[in-house]
Amino acid sequence: MNGNQYATWRISPEVRTTYSEDGAVLLHINKGLCYSLNPVAARIWVTIETSQAGMTFDGILGVLETHFKVPRHQLGDDIAEYLTKLEDMGLVQRNGLIHGSKVASARG
Questions:
Q1: Which residues pair with 80 in a beta bridge?
Q2: pLDDT tens-digit profile of 39-84?
Q3: pTM for this prediction
């Protein structure tokens, strides 16, 4: 995964979420775009959303591996791919240390 193990992931403040048994619908209020999430993607989303301080990748992986019976490395690859897509769409933001330094960076 691109990025840093110390990065924390947060939901973009411009995104609103509605949940259903089929997953979730995201609305990016500044762009006026809606996105639908299947139940698995919605589980990843709600995991990040419930942490006000943001979650590290390992934290997300740790929570989700209790819900899915797949090898840890496969789940990690799937989460990394999903987070990258969400970040590219402006739905999540990654904040954290750069190359292990104490300098904080904000992206998004």
A1: none
A2: 888 999 999 999 988 999 999 999 999 999 999 999 999 999 999 9
A3: 0.79
The angle subtended at Cα 92 by Cα 74 and Cα 26, nearest 5°, is: 95
Q: Which CATH architecture has domain 8-107?
A: Orthogonal Bundle (1.10)
Query: From residue 47, how far is each of 14, 64, 99 by CA, in Å?
Result: 18, 8, 25
* Sign of the alpha-carbon dihedral angle for 18, 23, 27, 32: negative
Assign residue 63 a region (left: φ > 0; alpha: ψ between -120 and 50; beta: otherwise). alpha
Q: Give me the residue spans of the domains in the chain.
A: 8-107
CA atoms within 13 A on the CB side of 77: 5
